[in-house]
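name: query_chain
kind: protein
chains: 1
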Amino acid sequence: MITIARMLSISIPLIWCGMIAAISFIEAPLKFRAPGVTLPIGLGIGKLVFHALNRVECVFFICLIITSFIVKTTYYDLITPLLIGAILWVETSWLLPNLDFRATQIREGIQPSGRSLHLYYAAGEVIKFILLAGSGLIQLFKIIKNFSI
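structure:
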C-alpha cells in the first residue's frame, strides 16, 4: 500500500502539471487563433474545458491528500498539498463562477463592468504548476535516494 501511495505521490502531481500546461498554458490561448473560432465560441469552449479540468483537479486533490497522509514523514510534506488545495478552492468557489458570469455576459453581447479576474486565475495556475512540479520531483528524489542507499 505504501509503495502504491509513493508512486501516486509522484505521478498525480506530475500528471496534473501536464494537464495545467496543456490546457491553461497551451490550449486556452491558442483556441482563439483557430480559423472560425469567434470570441463567443471560444468562451463557450473555454467554459466547458475549464470546468472539466476543475472536476479532474478536485479528484486529483483528494487523491493527493490521501497519498500525502499515507507517505508523510513530516508536517512539511502536507504544506504543499494544502497550498494547492487552497488555490483550487479559490478557483472553484470564486474565480470560475465570476469568470463564467463574465463570459456569459460577453456571449450575450453585454460589455461586462469591472476588471477581469483572468490574471488572478492565471497566477493561480502558475503557482499550482510550480507547487505540483516541485512536489512530484521531491517525492521522486526521495525514492531515488532510498534506492541509492
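note: The chain has a mean pLDDT of 91.
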